[in-house]
């Protein structure tokens, strides 16, 4: 599988390897263009919706390049899923590794040994691990093919999941090797996009922007009245279908999961406060269809590859439209219809504002602006799809919604001029 990069990399060569390694006959969307750009030594900024096949954009080029690609990712579970998947395509388990705080000293040494011997083509690292002097010194001595920065919206203070350590990445990349950078995210407004490129100093990167429109998803906001009753009724009407219920707090996750279980619904809780073993068991039960509903905080879902999720419910209004887009994007990845129900009560805004307390003033201001956007989205009477796509800088005609949002399906009578 270790093929040296050469001038011979062309479309036919890529197609052959896509088939040989991953078993796919064709690339999706702009994958091929992005891979060719990266293999030509250029920087790339990739904005591709959830389920659009972002990981292929760095996995295949890593396998075809000399040296090891460093993939920077924020979540251990996400890294583990991808490494397991890659090992499934290869006879050699050393092809991909995770290097983070979850490893023992012995495991960490084994990973480094495999990289030194040239057996490893992709190493997944959390920013916190990459910052460590010993890791910088180690990577310095080895050939790096490129850096892939997954979930790149974490770089931006305007993003829905800002992580301060992500803003140090350019400095670390400079300390390791002057190689191409590919930054990838499923959600980025024009403002966030510019911030990412500026911070990574890849202003001249080729921008690949896929449409944010997911035609098979139905957007709906419902008033929150008796939420437990509303959830039980809705889920019982969808018996045997897979769904996610997102809640803002861990406490609420536990509470709702219990209410659903008492009412005969196969539901399990998932949040960062559960012990790892339990989290993994619950996630696997959902993937293996032993449970129909996962009640979760937003910690659930990143990198979860379950194509037949039929509905995503927000028990509380989300903190930002970017977060909302990413969470709802987990529905209908198989192309079948996905229903997105958000229960809205203005009182929930106070809870969201409480989350901002104690944060730096600048962060609080941004947080409030993001909340205002979700309120406006929830209260608008215009086409929700048009509103959402406009937020991401995409033009969209309401007539193309085809009644796939509550406002287009049941237009509210206009009160203008009265």
H/E element string?
HHEHEHEHEHHEHEHEEHEHEHEEHEHHHH
Kindly state the number of beta strands.
13
Helix content: 40-55%
Supply the helix-strand structural class.
Answer: alpha/beta
Overview of the molecule:
By secondary structure, this protein is an alpha/beta fold. The protein is 40% helix and 16% strand. It has helices spanning 11-22, 31-39, 56-64, 76-89, 105-116, 127-130, 133-140, 169-176, 190-199, 227-236, 250-262, 276-287, 321-328, 348-356, 361-379, 384-391, 406-409, and strands at residues 44-47, 68-72, 96-99, 122-125, 144-149, 181-185, 206-209, 217-223, 242-246, 267-270, 293-296, 309-314, 338-344. Helix 2 (31-39) packs parallel to helix 3 (56-64) and helix 14 packs antiparallel against helix 15. The longest helix is centred in the last third of the chain and has 19 residues, at 361-379. The protein is globular.
Describe what is shown at a glance.
This protein is α/β, with parallel strands linked by helices and 418 residues long.
